[in-house]
Structures are given as structure tokens and as C-alpha cells.
């Protein structure tokens, strides 16, 4: 039983991080119908920024702030400088541009920092509090849950209760009408990219220090799992993505915890096939599923 | 005509263009016909290697080949070997076996290297054994402790370098048997030959049933908490690790998180203190007390003449790169190769270098002599225990020699350690 | 000439024969390593040609074609090793494993295609991505057969004795690879030209309209997937043969992405583009590394630049091509030859598919 609790907590912590990274994908997908394959590499970029700032100042929080601000700028920059200029008649071109961006970002990071893993600071201990003999949550786990919750509530409030959030939604769902109504659709897109990069960077900053540390490739698998989460939940659906993230995190934890061989990737594939066969647009596809 | 070119005509045109590009490229490569031995002239020896310089596996290992190159540069500045300067062509394979195939063919077929030296990695290097054999290329001092390199019948030109993984863990298990006789032992290994061979060593000494839990990990999944949780539940006092440095750090860090403090014992692959400490960052003190094995001098033994002299060369010829176990490793490979060249004498051929190594006179900086002989191509044949204490990793206890065979004895080696020449350049 | 204008099949056959003869002659001019690279181009071309038809003609984006190549490669390895153990020799040892590679990959492709036929662009991409990620786990789970992370070495014979004792293996394998690639190009060119080709494009452009015209939409998508899987399997088999090994590391996610990028840089939907793409995949890393050889860097700088520089250049080339010539290199070639407007058959091919209809950027320019 205690093993089950341990695996559950472990899986949940990783799952909510996948979820928030997945939200970054959803943010861009809703605006552009583009799966941003560069999300992982962009997060690696902000990760190194956080690393450098923390190295310089000695403060984790300065690094975290740098990652968020850097993410906003990086996202906006990529949208303005590159993505906007891709021939929009061919959707695949934007995907390829994103893949090209992955190569460029990872190569630049590799040239600057080399390929060694850079250990990163944690703000709180990962030693869990115990109830009786049962180790449960660590302070860092609690910190992760708080940050993720803040991201989710922040995004939800923004999209339902603020003027700018409503405009972003309008621009995403009905660009032509929004434009007629005076919404600057282009600016809303830039904002989506900026927000997505900041959220993705933050999620990476939560998970990478618990693994090997910063490396040009340290976010590759985070991207893959988050993408899987978003596909399971429905790329259109923030709630679906959160649930998808938790599912992926729990499955990875249970499977590697209980099976002798690590077959988690196969199980993830099986779940994905199963979900997509039953619900081709993900578990929580919006009712007005658009033709894609 | 052009408007009638079908969609197949265009590919043909493209192919023709490709052919042109190809033949141009072919012409630009100069064929060196002056020497009969590939890669050897009166003034140069060209050797090549494949190393992971990029990609996830590059961490740590990327510093090996620059160290080897630095040692060669040092030798070259001191006149080279019999007047020949050594050129070291390093190709990046990103630890991807498909890339290894390509770059090794490039080195052998196009760059015409004399030998492949210290190609790194079990999965990567295994794939090129047949190619190197077919082309009769000396395949020297492979950077991996797999037992694959020791197949003199099948691969007569391939030689290992490191003590193999089984040898290392046999030494570790002997230590545990003698000093922690009642300890419960668990084991975490990589899911390939590395893990399998290492586990075999533990079992050879302690018995097949002595390992209570043996878990494996794949490098693509960084969550090893479930495995460590099993060890804790089983109540193991000793955890043997056959892990790469990142996973050593993960294992130690995860155990601390679970409030579990076993005695970790790592093979040389994952025990290099600066590398693992770097991966742990602020949590590096967790490594205090960790045991490991190795077969080369340790950087923390600052009085060791090998370490002193390698450090000097590192400062002068390697741009003062961080002085880690990997740098010592890279320079040791360089030294051993130069030693082989000098032993060989001025008349150098691919056949003669293989014969020279088989004579078994090479020592290199190892703690024990190499095992090279007619029917043994393994490299170093032993290990010594080392312990992390006060942020330093120092050897203790006897040097042991043994082989990977299950029933071969683990014996103390009592000869004096080798000492480098004053200028760190081997003499005949 | 009139005969070739009206008889597409004969024209394609003649061109295929010319191409093959030219390539075989070329192998005599090339040194061994270039022949090895040529064989690699051939292997890649089998896969990229099938992929460009899949993406360009049916609009299905597969990020997992590396997995299908891996299927072919492992099938080839297991079959060749089995035959080798049983003492088979000669051409049998090449042809049977290649056929097995094609068939097994086609079956796996059929299964994915069945699921994929129901899925829209990004969801199919997600499914194929998960497939690629699962490969290392699949090989370690069944490591008794598949050899785990280390993979398998492949039993390969030297070139046939009838060619002479010292005939280079690389050249012999280049012949096989080129023959396979030319065959694939020939078959695909005819397929694209056929009734089925029109069905694929109809499905891509508007599924509803296609259905109204009596086209079995699902079946068309699945068959297209099977075809491209079969060619990928052939490519994987050839790769296994010429490198004498197969391992999961060789078919990583980035390899699959490289295939897609090769297709797109060449010009998606163009068979000729697939040639450019596969050439680029082989040539670019080689060019950057020889560039580095000629510049003297300090050891540590060189170790950071080596490899990374190739990736950087590859990335920049990709972005540059996409921004300036979104229809790929072949699109550029066509523009230069000024013929893009006039070829009625080529028009459909040249159209890059849109995997989506709702694209807010499409009317962007007026607004900014």
C-alpha cells in the first residue's frame, strides 16, 4: 500500500508538470492550429537562461523570474520574426519551421554551454514529510503543485474574465469576424506565443532540476510526454490536456514501479491508440470539432 | 522536350545532378599513393575515432577525445614518434550506431586512417566490428568495458582497453564479502551488456541467489524512484551500480529523497567524482562514502606522478579543461597508443602493430599490467576500490587482478605501480 | 518520341532504365566511401519517396516513418541471420530478407494506417510520434530476439565472386540500393499517375467531395499508408544490409524528423523533391564536418562545434528554405525553368497540402 501511495504522489507530481507543458502546446494550437514542435527546445533555452541567472546571482527566484520574462520575449520574438513569415497556405511548412528551430536552438545551446548536464538548484528540499512511517509529499512537490495550480487558475481567469483573454479566444476561434470587430488578431497571436513560451519554460524549470539538469536535450522527452497528454485529452481542450497529463504521469510511474521491465512507452502507445480509436479528436474534443 | 518531361524525368535529372556533385567531391579528395600503409607516411601517422560529442550521451564523454588529442599534440611538439607526428581525427557519432557506421567508413575509406583508436560505446562500436575486420583495420583500445572486444578468433584486430565490467564487479563483490559479510545486496544496472556483465560479476563471487533485487533502467526514462523504492523495501544495505554518471547521480539523489542510505558501489563508468558531483550540484555531499572501482590513477591522488604530469599537459595543451577522470582516461589511451608505436619500432604496418600489442609488454598508466596476449584482447585486468571522502576520491586496500571468467580467482596484485618517464613519453 | 509522349508507362520504364545505367556507371567513378554514401542516399530515397507521396498526395503527416524503416531493418536482420545460419548464400540472402522487410513493414503500416485513417493531422502525428518513442522499449522488452539497446548485427556476404575477388562490397551494395530506389521511384511515379493517384488527391483536397464521387476515402488513406510503409520497409532493409547492423538508436525520433524535413526541403509531393531531400540528408552533415576539418579550432571549441555546427546549418537551411521557397528545392527548380504554370499533371503535385482549413494566419497580412 505504501508503495502505491508513493508511486501515486510521484506520478501526480510529474503528471501535473506534463499537463502545464501541454497547456503551452494548447495555447498555440488553439490560436494557429499548429503543434509547436519547438516548444521543448524553446523551454531548453529559457532553462539555460534561468541556470545562468541563478549562477550569477545565487538566487533561484531570480532565475525563475528570468525564465518567465525570457520566455515571454522569446515566444513573441519567434512569432514575429519567423512564424509570421511562413507561407500560411501550407500548414506543414510551419511544422517544419518549428523543427528547424529545434535544431537551431539546440545547436546554439550546445555551442555555448557544451553538452554536459548542468545541475540546477532547487528552492525547496525534495525529502518528503512522513506521516508515521509513510513518506508522502516533499516541500518541493507542494511547490510544484502550487505553481501549476497558479498557472492553471491564471490562464482560466485570463481567458474567461479579462478583456485581453476574451480577445485572444475570439481571435483564435473566429479570426475573420474578430478582425471585423477590431481585434488585432496578429497581436493576439504574438501574445499566445509569448504566454506559451513562458508557461512551457516554467514547466521545464519545475521538472528538469529533478532529473539530470540543464542540457540542450533535457526537454525532449518532456515535450513528447506533454504532447501525448495533449493528444489524449484533445489538443483543443485545456481541461482534457490537464487530465491527459495526469494520466501520462501516473501510468509512467505505476508501470515502471510495478513491472520488472520498463514497458511504460509501450503502455503509453497502447493508451494513445485506444483513446484515439474511440475518440479521434481526444477525450475532451470540443463539441464543434472543426474539420482538420 | 522539357514540357514533356514526366515526373520521373525530374528525378532522373536530379540524380544526374547528384552524380555530378558526387564525382566532383570524389575528385577533390586527394589520393595518397606515396605510402603503402594507409595513414602512415615518413612524417605522419593518422588515426581516427568515433566519439559522442553531441546528443544526450555526450555529457562527460565529450572530454575524452580532446584529452587524447592534447597528449598527441604534446608528443608531436617533442618530436613525435620516430619522427612521425600523430594526427587524431575525431568524428562525432552522437552515440547513434547509424552515425558510427558512416563516420567509421569515412575514416577508413576516405581519410585512410591507420587505425581506429578508442571508439566509444558498446552499441555504437559493436556495429563496426565486422567492417573493421573485413578491411583489416587495427581497432585499438575500444572505450567500453564490454567483453565483445575480446574475441581474438573472430575479431583478430580488435583490442579492448578498460577492465571489463565483470572484472570490476568481481572486485567489488570480493570487498563486500570480506568487509560487509552479512550485507543484503541489491543491484541497479543499465539494460544492456553493461548491466548484464556487471551483474554476472556480483553473482560470480556472492552466488546466484545473493542479489536480492536486480533492477534495470533504460536511459530514456529518468524516473528510477520505483527501482530505488524496491531496494528500500527489500532492506538492502549495499546497492551495486552499473550506471552511467547521470544515473549514478539520480540513484544517489533518489535514495536520499526516500530517506534511504545504503552503501553504493559503482563501476568506474559511473563513479567519476567530479562528473557525478557536477550532476548532483548542491547535493554533491550525498556522495560522501560512496565506493567505486577503477584501474587508472585517480585525480585526487595529487602526488601521483601520472596525475601531476597529465595535469601539466592538460593545462598546456588542452586549454586547461576541467581535470576529471575522463581527461586522465583520454591521456592514458594516448599514452598507451604511443607506447605501442614505440615498442613497434620504426617499421610500422597494420599487421605489425597488432603483433606488438599481442606481445603483452604494454603497461600504460594502469594500476595493473594490461592482459594483452595472443588469446586475450581485453586490456586491463583488475581494479582497486576507491572511496569518496571529504570531496576526494581515493584508493584504498589492495589492487586486485582477475578475469571475467566466472571461476577465475580474484587475486591481490603486489608489484609496484608503474611510473611515467620524466617527460611522460614512453621509451622502448 | 510520339510513342513516349502517349505511353506514360513506357516513358517511365525507359527513364528508369536510363537512370539505373547511369547510376551503375557512376559507381565505377566513385571511391568506396562515396559509394557507401550513394547507397545510403538510395536507402533514404526509398523512404522519402514513399513519405512524400503519403504527405503530399493524401495529406497524412507521419512522424513515425523511422519506425517503419526500423521494422524493415529488423525484419531484414532476423531473416538474413536465419538464412545465413541455414547456409543460404548468394542473391537469395539479399532478395528474401528484402521482401520480408517490405511485407512486415507493410503490415505494420496497414495497422497504423487503419487507426490513422480516422485521425486528423496532428493526432496522426501524435500517434506516430508515440510509436517512435516506443521503439527502444520494444527492443529492450523483447531483447532476446531484438538485441535490446545494442541491436543486432546483420549477416552480410561479400560481393558475388563473379564480379571479381576484390570487387568492393560498397559498390555492390550501392547497386542494390540504387536498383531498389529506382524501382520505388518507377512504381510510385506510375501510382501517382494512375486512377488511384487521382483518388488520393481528391481525398486530400476534400474528403466529402471525394466520398460523393464514389471514392472510398478510408480505404484510399489506408492503402496509401501501406504503400509508403512498404517503401520505408525496403529502405530500412537496405540500410540494415549496408551498415551490417540495426539498433534502436539508429531510428530515433530525430531520424524520423529528418526524413520529414528531407521531404519538405525537397518539395513535398514531388518525387524529385525526395531525391533532393535524401541527398541533403547525407551530404549536409558530411559537408559541415569536412568544413570543420579545414579550420583549426582549439580542442574544447572543436568538441562543442563538431556536430552542433552541422545541426545549426541544417536548421538554418530548413528555415531559410521554408521562408523563401516554401515549395522546396524542386519548387525552386521548377520556377527557374518557368514551367510550373504549364504542366497540368504537375500542378496537382506541386500543390502543397494543407492539413487544416481554419488557419487564422491566412488572412493575416491585411491586419498587421
Structure description:
The complex is a heterotrimer of chains A (292), B (428) and C (368). With 292 residues, chain A is mostly helical. Chain A has helices spanning 2-32, 39-57, 60-81, 91-113, 139-161, 163-173, 175-180, 185-207, 220-233, 238-258, 264-278; strands at 130-131, 134-135. Chain A is 71% helix and 1% strand. Chain A has a two-stranded antiparallel ribbon. In chain A, strand 1 (130-131) and strand 2 form a beta hairpin. In chain A, helix 3 runs antiparallel to helix 8, helix 6 (163-173) crosses helix 8 and helix 10 (238-258) packs antiparallel against helix 11 (264-278). Chain B has two domains: 3-164 and 298-381, 3-Layer(aba) Sandwich (Rossmann fold); 165-294, Response regulator (Rossmann fold, 3-Layer(aba) Sandwich). The termini of chain B are far apart. Chain C has 17 helices and two strands. Chains A and C meet through helix 1, helix 4, helix 7, helix 8 and helix 9 of A and helix 6, helix 12, helix 14 and helix 15 of C.
Briefly say what this structure is.
The complex is a heterotrimer of chains A (292), B (428) and C (368). With 292 residues, chain A is mainly alpha-helical.
User: What is the number of helical segments of chain B per DSSP (H or I, 4+ residues)?
Assistant: 13
* C-alpha termini separation of chain A: 45 Å
Q: Mean pLDDT score of chain B, rounded?
A: 88
The number of distinct helices of chain A, counting runs of at least 4 residues, comes to: 11
Fraction in beta strands of chain B: 15-25%
The CATH architecture of the largest domain in chain B can be named as 3-Layer(aba) Sandwich
Based on Cα principal axes, name the global outline of chain B. globular
Please give the largest β-sheet of chain B.
Answer: 8 strands, mixed
Largest beta sheet of chain A: what is the strand line-up? 1-2
* Name of the CATH homologous superfamily of the largest domain in chain B: Response regulator
Number of DSSP strand runs of chain B: 13
Output the CATH topology of the largest domain in chain B. Answer: Rossmann fold
Strand content of chain A: under 5%
| CATH topology tier name of chain A | ABC transporter involved in vitamin B12 uptake, BtuC
